[in-house]
Amino acid sequence: MLDANTQATRPDFAADNHPKVARGKTGILLANLGTPDDYSYWPMRRYLNEFLSDERVIDLPRWKWQPLLQLIILTKRPFSSGAAYKSIWNHDKGESPLMTITKDQTAKFKTAMHTRYGDQVMVDFCMRYGNPSTQSKVREMVAAGCERILFFPLYPQYAGATSGTANDHFFRALMQETWQPAARTIEPYFDQPAYIDALAASVQAGYDAMTDKPDILVVSYHGMPKRYLMQGDPYHCQCQKTTRLLQEKLGWDKTQLITTFQSRFGTEEWLQPYTVEEVARLAQTGKKNIAVIAPAFSADCIETLEEINEEIKESFEEAGGEKFTYIPCLNNDDAHIAALVQVAQENLAGWLD
Q: pTM for this one?
């Protein structure tokens, strides 16, 4: 991290007693979903409270939702969610896999950007929920002299409940700054060739490592209520296009893969087909060997390591499935980092040459 005082100078023509100000840099702030600080009850409760109080995630009226959340859900759910996190926790580093992977991604991304732009850029990461907070990292960048900040939510497909709420939080952080930097947010990169290439390469590598090739690839995206689609959220359409482009890049026909949606919450209808039900149906109709990939996640997390690799796998096997292979997220794979760097460079046009 850059020291806020590294290049602090007194503005031209300023009085001798004017405070020195660090200026002239461009910040690139990567943003991911977030993670609890620990899987014990109170850290889990704080994290879930922040997450489930986000009106982009749960858009029920607060007078109706908050009593239910505070008095019932947050009394019980930290125990079950904590147990799920414990099953995947990086105990050696004392953090969730999402935190470990995001740190690794940021380190590689930072090296690539500094190779290209040198000390003109400052690279860091934040989380929408939990730590490090968006506001703390915006504050550090401004103090270090960032006159411009490119905010980069690590979601290939745009959804209001992911990219949208991350952007909201970034703008709220800017509201706290006396001297606001110029700001940009990235465009969704769900159809960027470098991203599709990296995704296809990961599938091909996964298949090449298997003796018996899967009967079908399940392309599972995180879910959302169907009414969000009807209200104009582009997420569903962008997911479908990602799958189509992946299919074309692999040179497959439409029967070799299927798009599904996971992580359903509540009782209303969500985007379908539901992954947990679809894998059971596939097993019952003779697809005994399947692979699953999750392109909406830039890093493996609770939804992939626990939900897909445990709950969804169990649904498949209980329905008669025999072989279940989860193909990991792109994580800190070099091709993935190169794709992210390319997206950043395109969005920095006019700021940095």
A: 0.92
